[in-house]
Amino acid sequence: MDTWTDLRSRLADTGYIASDDLSMALHIAVSLGRPLLLEGAAGVGKTDIARSLAAVKGCELIRLQCYEGLDASQAIYEWNYQRQLLAIRAAAEDGETGRAVEARIFSEDYLLERPLLRAIRQPEPPVLLIDEIDRADEEFEAYLLEVLSDFQITVPELGTIAAASRPMVILTANGTRDLSDALRRRCIYAHVDYPDRRTELAILAARAPQTETKLAAQIVAFVQKLREEDLEKVPGIAETLDFAAALAGLGIKDLTDDPAALQAALATLLKTQSDRAAVPVEVAARIAGRAA
Amino acid sequence: MSRVTRFAAADPGPAARVAGFIGHLRDNGFRLGVGETGTALAALCRVDPTDPAEARLALKAVCTGCAEDAARFDTLFDAYWMADGRVRQKIVPRDRAAPPAHTRNSRADDGLQSAGRGRAHAPDDAGGDGQGDSGGPGRLVASRLHNLMRKDLRELVSPEDIRAAEQVARQLGRALRDRRSHRRKAARKGSAVDFRRTLRASLATGGEPLRLARRRRPDRPVKIVALCDVSGSMTLYARPFLAFLAGLMRADADSDAYLFHTRLVRIAEALRDPDPLRALNRITLLADGFGGGSRIGGNLAAFAQGHARRFVNGRSVVVILSDGYDSDPPMVLDAALARLRKRGCRIVWLNPLKGWSGYEPVARGMAAALPHLDHFAAAATLNDLAALEQALARL
Asked: Looking at the Swiss-Prot or TrEMBL record, what is one Pfam family this protein matches (chain B) (predicted)?
């Protein structure tokens, strides 16, 4: 895989249709060994790109889901205290010396690997997905910067563990809070937007191949029109695919056929009460009519 | 693609051109260091750099760092690399010894703009980046035209005001911020014993828990987002309110501030300028139309749909400083506040007119807003603001 177009076509083979911006950013990030920071609205396929990259590279995907209060023991490593305690008790009964016990209970056997440590200890470079980094606290972000620049982790009892291979790091953010400039600067950046009509058709064809061409065109046009409406939660690609699946389940061949069934299927696209209220049967039928 | 810029014969080579491009981006408010130039060159080695489309995508991935940058990048790229075959004479600036940050600030300081290279191509919709907004010829032209509409904020607010306001803002911030989390975190002192860490520590003392580790509920800071109305009807009160905003920004690094009249402007970046007077100067540049009409509903709707999505969450208190005289229909304000509320924030409206005896919130906008407010109070002077501490602490 030498050029970014190769990467894009191989991603397409795994069912991920990437935009030019995204495939170039991914190509550069992978070839320069830099982390890739992806921003964009929910449901545009930020997390999925990591899965597809892992499939393309034929390597493992290690995922670290960030949340507020995420700390080192959940992200990096933790000692298995219960096992250590048991080992100490057992050793006391056997009359083992303190030094030997200590060496044993602070060995690899008693170390619980969490995603970051696991990622840098893989013999083959894995894809490390750090999902929704903006949900983690700023302190964790600062620590992550250190790991991402040195690719080594220090466990006081064991010493410094250097990376066996450099993982391909993908960070995603939703804009919960502003990320630090330091993190942005260290990363290759791509902003993932809602796909245009052509791309979304290609995605639908790749992910839901059973959908007929005419209906697929209608679905995409309908969703694209819906995104222009003033909604609280704009439907993403995942919602489009759900919508297609729902229509298939309801046996709908044409969006304009049955307004009631269409309204029922809208449950897959509109996820808040006020959005449902904003698109009543008539509006949905009008949009469907224009999409057809 | 024959529109590619031709470079002068004396030009030192591709690396220097890329360095020149990074400098061009930097002049336009991108935050790029020397490291990025290296990364950009390395990235160009991984693609076909003679294909403008590939080079554009590659440089975009390296040089942009946020959505606003990404949106502006294409224009800036065109301005530098695709200048219709024009010859670019000097690509590496030699005459600037000062570091970029200083250069930008001093420009903002005297308000004059020595037009940098390529600046004429810069779009002037620099988003929330105050530094981008304060430069650029588009703004200056506009400022000359609207001169009568503009007031220099320095005439309104003195550094002493800001210092006093900073004190008040600190107190208010503290009153609002003192919130405890429900989860417990490890801490040296705390109300509950952390069994896990205690056991872990007891290994060092032969299984005897000599030192008790503790957990406590950490403070969860509340973020203050202030929106200040600076329309004509509010001119009288602009002085304490702006001083308050300036003080708030300086006292609390997490807070956020906006001005609105006919447009909404984010001023948090500008107000954080280390020099208080220069901060006000930068806002003056940002806020043309100051003292003009008021579109409260429209601006709050824009805020609720735009910045609020990024900066307002369940831990925010939105403080609106306005008299409620709105030229938009009241429904707009009603919908905007309802939407804002859904983000889980608390909304405080401080109205200078409420202090008047016999005041009734009859302004239609104000009446529409009332049901959505957590707290509605009078505030016309700094002392009034200081007196709010008690009420805000109860929110």
From this structure: VWA_CoxE
